[in-house]
Structure formats: C-alpha cells, structure tokens
From TrEMBL:
Record has tRNA-binding as a keyword: no
Similarity comment: Belongs to the GARS family.
Gene behind the chain: purD
Single GO MF descriptor: ATP binding
Pfam families from the UniProt entry: GARS_A, GARS_C, GARS_N
Name of the protein in question: Phosphoribosylamine--glycine ligase
GO annotation, biological process: 'de novo' IMP biosynthetic process; purine nucleobase biosynthetic process
Residue ranges occupied by any ATP-grasp domain in the UniProt entry: 109-315
Involved pathway(s): Purine metabolism; IMP biosynthesis via de novo pathway; N(1)-(5-phospho-D-ribosyl)glycinamide from 5-phospho-alpha-D-ribose 1-diphosphate: step 2/2
Named cofactor requirement(s): Mg(2+); Mn(2+)
Keywords: ATP-binding, Ligase, Manganese, Metal-binding, Nucleotide-binding, Purine biosynthesis
Species of origin: Alkalicoccus saliphilus
Amino acid sequence: MNILVVGGGGREHALAWKLAQSDHITEVIIAPGSDAAAQMMDCRVEEIQADDHEGLVQLALEEEIELAVIGPEQPLTEGLADKMKEAGIPVFGPSKAAARLEGSKQFAKELMQKYGIPTAASGYFTNLEEAKEYVREQGTPIVIKADGLAAGKGVTVAADEEEAFKALELILSEEAFGEAGSSVVIEECLTGEEVSYMALVNGNTVVPLLPAQDHKRAFEGDKGPNTGGMGAYSPVPHIDEEILRRAEEEILWPAAEAMVKEGTPFTGVLYAGLMITEDGPKVIEFNARFGDPEAQVVLPLMESDLVDVLLQVLDGKTPDIKWSGESCAGVVVASEGYPGSYEKGIPFTMPMTRSDEKQQFFHAGTKVNSEKVGWLTTGGRVMLLSSQAPTLEEALRMTYEVLDSKEWDGLFYRKDIGHRLLKTE
C-alpha cells in the first residue's frame, strides 16, 4: 500500500522511517519531506507544502494513497484531515473541530473544567490591563500562554511580576505571535515531574503509548527560553505504573469521551503534557499530534508494525502493541540563537563515529549541501540523534559519544538530557 506522511520535520522523518518498515508498504510518500527523508529506502519526497491542502489531496488521489498520516499541528487545525476524508482518503489525524484541543488553549481549558479533567487553575484574557491585574491577584510564579499555536514558544513560566508583565505585553501588545496571541491564558504554576503521555485515539478507542520526558528549556540545568524541545527519552523509569494508570483513567479516557460527547470525536494522536503533582497527574496542555521530539524516542521502541497499529485503531480495535523493553534517548542539535533569531545555511558534516542499527539521525531543519560534501541548516532545530539500549544511561552514553566526537561550529546541543532521572537515583 502507498502511505502519505504530511510534514517535513524530525517527527515526520521518524514517522516515515517507522512506517517504511511495514510489510504492507509499497511506498511512503512524504510531503514536503526533506533531503534526509528522500535518502531512506521505500520513501519518496514530493515538494508540496503542508499548507497546500488542495495539492496534498490531489497527490493522495493520484498516488492512490490508502492511509494519510498528518504530522504537524498547523494543517490539522486548518482542516486538512477533513478535506482528506471528504475525498475518500483514510486519514490518521483529527478534524479541524477536534484539533481545537491544541489550537485553542481556552477551548481545551473549558473542556477540562466541564468534564472534571485535572488541570491548573486559569484565567483567559484579551485585555492587557485585566490580565496584569489577574497576575497581581494570583501572585507568582505564574504561567503565561498565547492562546493559539506558537510552535512551542508561546509559553513563559514567569518567576515574578516583571517577567509576567513582559510576557503579557509581548503577546497582547507587541503581537509577537500574531493571531495566536490575540488572547492569553494565565495559569497557576504547577510543580513536579513533567511527562508526555501520548495515546492513539479513535472516538472511544484509546491506546496509550510509552511515556516520554521532554526537555523544553534551551540550556543546561533547564535554563533559558522554552523551545520546541531539546531532547527526550522514553520510557520514564521514575514515574511509576500507578501514576500512568491514573493518567490514563483520569485524563486520556475522559478527554476522548468528552470529545465524543461534544460532537467532535477525536481521531489521531492525543498528546497529554502532564505535571505529576502531589495531588497526582494534571494536564499542562493537550496536543493533537505526535510530540516532537517525543515521537523520535517512542517510535523506535515499538516492535509492532505501525501500519497495522494505525489501521486497527481506525477500525475501532485496540491493538496489542509490542515494545522492545529497552530505553531510547534523543538529543537535539540546534542552531546557535535558537529559539530566538539564528543563522540559516550553516554548513556541517555528520559525525564520523559510526552509529549502530539502534541509532538514528532524524533531520528537522537540513538540506544537502549541493556545493560541498555534507549538509546545510534550514531551521532552528537541526536534527536529533536517538539511541536505543537496555538502559537509559547506556542510551544517553551512546548518543553523547557520537555527538561529542566532533565540533559543531554554529550549532549547539544540551549536554544534560536525562539529568532529572540521574538525580533521582
């Protein structure tokens, strides 16, 4: 069968890599894809952008696509899944109405409050002075979020009023995030361990995946601005099974059921960003797709055929997913300056150290350097190296052994991914 993966980042590279391993596959087509994805066996890149919905639908019809998997949040919130379904193309991804779980933090908050899903107390504002007054009343630390999509950069954990007010002004007055910042959600600052818990969902069918832990801050010690993610690992050994059971029963299932009751059933990946507080797991945010970089460390651990798994979920069945029992750690190499301004077109070569079959580079912002050997950067997050091993410590060691084997001029990576785990042991 022919499968279409929509998107061109590291998450989509990982999805195409995993889907291409299926015995069912004739070809995986990736649009717009990347030069790195084009180099994989049984994969073909078509340079159609993720916002060209008509072009993607036409491509799917021409190529007789039997399953479309939509990676990024933007085309989901803009209704690409709806257009695919209207054209008769099976698609794994939520409708525009269901994708509001990620596209509008206000919508997600109101849904959680209505159905008793545990989350942080919050307020919603469009007026700057009213928002500031709410911060004064609640006190700090406090969390400021642009309501809409901001590529993982619209969140500020403000330690004091000055930082909170600056974040509010950036969103509401300076319009740093465009339409995504026309309104703001202000939340209490939850404390505890942060965990990403994703599930494959189709209406009332909910199939949890392995948990992962992401590192959002740009610099070592969890300092610096929030990014789309600087590294991740899975599973999360210091989060016990009881907590995961509660997260499944109190959050994942109720959220899926709530969407059905609201008349907007969810199909796709329901991503719950959780804080494990003293009172148990609470939702920080919902996403409507695979996490990035979480997908790059969860998918390598799946021994089941991903095509089989997705088709069963779309058929309303609950697949028995087989996992390797190992750990996977991934570290992001990023352009200096990210998540702020950064230079594009930085030349680099891949490490000479040979990675074994349990190590994969997933490219997020690269293209082949046509003038010289190697690659050029095209984005802030350049690529991620994931490694599998019997233990997380070994997976991290393998990853850093490769990354540390060369100089990365103009690029950087965090040297302490996994430090939360290591501190607990």
